[in-house]
Every structure is written in C-alpha cells, then in structure tokens.
Fold Regulator of RNase E activity RraA.
Amino acid sequence: MKHTRFIRLLVLNLLFGGVATQAFSQNVGASPDYIKALTSEWTGERFPDGRPKVSDSILERLKKISIEEAWGVLRNKGFQNQYEGDWQIMLPDEAMTGRVVTAQYMPLRPDYQKQVTEQGVGKEGRSPKGGTNSWPIDILTNGDVYVADGYGKIADGTLIGDNLGNSIYAKSKRGVIFYGSVRDQEGLSEIDGFNAWMKGQDPSYIQQMMLSAINTPIRVGRATVLPGDVVLAKKYGVIFIPAYLVEDLVITSEVTGLRDEFGHLRLREGKYLAGQIDSEWTDEIKKDFLSWLENYPGKLPMSKAELDNYFKERNW
C-alpha cells in the first residue's frame, strides 16, 4: 500500500514538475513540434521550423484567385473567420501571396518583457542588438510574409521603418501584413517590390509595446491566423488559408472562374437564358462546357490531369 502511494506521488511530482518546467522555459518562438501540431492536417514537405512548405507554383496561381472566390471556398469548408478588410496598402494594384510567419505584440509590461528578452537572447540565441521587433524578421526566408498583430496601435506602434523593411524584402522578396502601423512609409515605398497591408502609418518610433511570441496563433482583426497559413492579399482584402486547403482552394476557384467565363460568353451569345446558367446545369450545358474547355482560347491555369481529377472527384 505504501509502495503504491509512493509511486503515485512520484508520478504526480514528475507530471506537475514537468509542467512547471515547461511553463518557466516557454519559448518566444514556437517549437517545430508545436507548429506541426497546429498544422497536423498538412501532409507535404515542411520547413525546419515545422511550417508547411506550400509550393511556389501554387503561390503564383493563387495570385489570380479573387478574394470572393477564396472566401467562398473557405466558408463552404467551415472556415468563416479568415478574412480582414479595410487596409491601407502601399501598392494596391499588386497582389501578394506567401507563407505566413506570425508575431504577437502586446502593451509593454516590464517584468514580462524581461522574461521574453532573457528567454530569447539567453536560451534561443536571438540577437541582443536592436529591438525585439527585429526577431521575426531574422527568421524570414524567400516566400514568407511577415504577419503581425500590433493590436491596431498607430502612434508609437510602428513595427518597422525603412531599415527593417529593406531587411524583410531582402529575406522574403515579399512584404508585411500588420494589424498595426509602420514608420517612414516614404522610405518603404522606395524598396522596389516591397508591399504592405497596414492599419496606418505614423512618424513616431515604437514605444510602450513589446514582442511576446513568434509563430504562434494570432488574431488579425476578424481573422484567426496560424503560422504556416498561406495568405492572399489584394486591394479588396486579405484571406488567410490553412495550408492543407490551399491547393484544393486554388483549383476549385480556377474552375469557378472558367465556369463564369463560359457562362458569360454563352449569355452574350444568347445561347442560354440567365436562369439556365444561374441554376444547376443540364447535361447539355455541361457537355458544352467541357467541349469549350477542350478548345479553350488560351492557356488553362491548371494542367489537363488536374482538371480531369477535379471532375472525377466532384459531382459538378
């Protein structure tokens, strides 16, 4: 009896002791195992940090997908909180896609900032020079988009200026999406190719706010964002897409676009009535659509094999 009680106490001590140790050594940057757990439905290649490695070709095709089409696909799959609008955009006519690196900012609390700095510098080997707002930038790779929750702070909430902007573009060949603000927008605009979606800009320096976490879930307005999501950013808003859904979203949206193109053409020709195109298609219209695809006047956005597989797996 005493032996059994001793074993139970030992197990409880190890269990709760382990939890306490884990809490005390909480990382600033999420571990690869944590990111893999967050994105467990992704079955493809991953980066060393655990984020899904969505292909460059899919990212390029995603640029041509409309915000409405992407939103519709996600909503049909139960993802209703992946969109945020009402942005200030540096290059509004240029779409941006990429793999998300997240950062969470909070109002400054000295004791918490001390712990973050000690953990980041002392245990994770992050740079002791400059502010902690440079840490998310240090880990960017080509194709990444730096997404930060700056809790909407504008004055004294500027997460980057032109120096950090140059570093971001050099590493990622992309830009930023900030639920917050930037400084020196004039200087940022001189970085060829750099783009930014932000809630404002201000000449002030960042003050009374702190970085609290890198590559953890964050909130960006109406959207919940995970590290490794794929982002589609346009002048009409921003969509954050779970990595495991992006390929299906792209081809579904591409086929929807082709259906719309075909339907508009046939309506202009007077071949069908609007009600026929807007409702479930008859076998005659489906056959006509497939024939039109076979003789499509241009280059289809997907391969013939992808298109065939799409129609095999769906009942229109």
About this structure: The chain has a mean pLDDT of 92.
